[in-house]
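Module 6 notes. Inverse folding takes a fixed backbone as the condition and produces residue identities as the prediction. Think of it as a translation problem where the source language is geometry and the target language is the twenty amino acids. Below is one complete input and output pair. Work through it position by position during the lab.
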């Protein structure tokens, strides 16, 4: 027979732990805290550590956790670690994590150890860029923890997150004697953050062992840097991986669906959709939104809307994605209808943001709905207090320019609170081309050249405008300038999926192995025409 101990016979430690397990509200925690204080344990590290951890992990109340911490006369390393870990886990509290570490070092109550440094380093790039990482690195060297694998990996990750320090990160990585999959992944992620996909891929190929986060890192990096075909290629390899532990998860699916959307690979997107259902990855809000986005970008708006309607927990991102899908394909009224449903449906309790209005303004532009576009721009600023960004101004000027309302468009430019950029002048130029306003087009292109003198595309546009105006001397001057400055023009690029393989083509590029066959077919089509 097993006897059950009563609370009277339990030790105080057991009582505290048992009560904590039953707590589910801050008031419960305060009652326990009052009990400990009245029994003379106001400064006992063990109990305060338990209270603080419960407050941060279960109640997610960092404010009261800090209240507990600040009333300790001499907190030990474990209490500092618990508080810094809680702050470092939230990007908007990074400065508090770093300042608390600084206070710990200055006051000298406790010396940092190998467990606290990774959390401090995580917050450094958010607070002081490379300066913060270097300061902590110096402290690590002084305290003798530099060669500890966990600390070294955290240093690699922190330097790789700081702008311009990827070479320092690689130097530290190469010096590591004991590299694990986490350190390899940290370095690969560092390369993808700075857009160096080549070195990320080379390092990935050198890895002795790979796990799912590592695959996700290289796939996400390719997707975020516009290397969509490469992302899909890595995904195919991951699926073919023989290890039972290597299976795509929610992160993998979201990244590769984005790549499918950008490349128009609808068939692969459908296969991944099936994989989601077969492997129980849904319902997941991020996957729902990624599926809507993929179907929308691939032009299957019916399926996009079906997936959207099947989501019972729509977030603001869900609504924005559906609005932008319709706007992208010129279905203005449907985009507006989704927006109206969103603001009038109280069951979802979502409030539109700047992204919502970019989608709406784009929808109005494609539909030529000038008055509605104007009204939505005013609604955004007046009713929702959203400060217009450059994208909003670009949409509004594009809308007015396409409608031939150039005086109004220029008035918007003059009233802008931020400096006009390529989006704004490009939008105005687009309207000028439609309505043959070569004088204003010349003005817009000159502004674009001022912003990016090395972009040969703008110079070619200006030369073409001068040609249409008959200003041949000016044409020669522009072409001479382009040659002297060695200006470049970004080539146009397109993709097509054939037999589950993506074929990529650049303007005036004949490197495709079937180029001769392609041109023969084009020639035969020209003959038929």
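Target side of the pair, the amino acids:
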């Amino acid at each position: 027979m097993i006897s059950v101990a009563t609370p009277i016979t339990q030790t105080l430690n057991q009582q505290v732990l048992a009560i904590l397990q039953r707590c589910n509200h801050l008031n419960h925690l305060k009652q326990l805290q009052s009990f400990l204080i009245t029994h003379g344990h106001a400064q006992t590290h063990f109990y305060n550590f338990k209270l603080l951890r419960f407050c941060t992990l279960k109640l997610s109340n960092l404010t009261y956790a800090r209240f507990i911490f600040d009333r300790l006369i001499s907190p030990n390393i474990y209490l500092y670690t618990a508080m810094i870990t809680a702050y470092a886990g939230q990007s908007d509290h990074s400065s508090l994590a770093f300042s608390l570490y600084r206070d710990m070092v200055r006051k000298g109550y406790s010396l940092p150890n190998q467990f606290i440094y990774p959390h401090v380093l995580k917050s450094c790039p958010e607070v002081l860029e490379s300066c913060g990482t270097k300061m902590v690195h110096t402290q690590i060297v002084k305290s003798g923890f530099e060669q500890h694998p966990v600390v070294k990996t955290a240093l690699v990750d922190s330097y790789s997150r700081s702008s311009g320090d990827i070479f320092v990160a690689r130097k530290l990585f190469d010096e590591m004697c004991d590299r694990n999959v986490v350190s390899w992944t940290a370095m690969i992620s560092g390369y993808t953050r700075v857009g160096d996909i080549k070195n990320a891929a080379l390092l990935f190929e050198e890895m002795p062992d790979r796990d799912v986060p590592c695959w996700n890192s290289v796939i996400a990096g390719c997707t975020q840097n516009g290397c969509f075909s490469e992302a899909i290629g890595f995904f195919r390899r991951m699926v073919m991986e023989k290890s039972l532990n290597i299976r795509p998860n929610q992160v993998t699916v979201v990244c590769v669906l984005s790549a499918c959307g950008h490349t128009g690979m609808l068939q692969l997107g459908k296969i991944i959709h099936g994989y989601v259902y077969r492997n129980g990855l849904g319902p997941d809000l991020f996957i729902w939104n990624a599926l809507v986005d993929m179907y929308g970008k691939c032009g299957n708006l019916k399926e996009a809307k079906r997936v959207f309607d099947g989501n019972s927990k729509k977030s603001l991102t869900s609504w924005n994605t559906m609005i932008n899908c319709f706007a992208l394909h010129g279905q203005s009224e449907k985009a507006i209808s989704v927006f109206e449903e969103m603001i009038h449906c109280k069951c979802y309790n979502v409030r539109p943001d700047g992204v919502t209005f970019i989608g709406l303004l784009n929808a109005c532009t494609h539909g030529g709905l000038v008055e509605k576009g104007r009204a939505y721009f005013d609604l955004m600023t007046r009713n929702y207090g959203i400060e217009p960004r450059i994208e909003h101004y670009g949409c509004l000027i594009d809308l007015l320019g396409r409608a031939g309302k150039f005086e109004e468009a220029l008035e918007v430019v003059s009233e802008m609170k931020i400096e006009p950029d390529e989006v704004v002048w490009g939008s105005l130029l687009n309207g000028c081309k439609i309505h043959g306003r070569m004088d204003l087009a010349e003005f817009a292109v000159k502004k674009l050249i001022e912003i990016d003198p090395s972009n040969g595309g703008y110079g070619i546009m200006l030369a073409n405008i001068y040609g249409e105006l008959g200003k041949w001397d000016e044409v020669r001057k522009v072409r001479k300038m382009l040659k002297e400055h060695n200006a470049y023009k970004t080539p146009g690029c397109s993709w097509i999926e054939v037999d589950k393989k993506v074929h990529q083509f650049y303007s005036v590029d004949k490197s495709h192995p079937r180029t001769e066959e392609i041109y023969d077919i084009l020639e035969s089509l020209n003959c038929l025409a």
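Reference fact for the lab report: The two ends are 95 Å apart (CA to CA).
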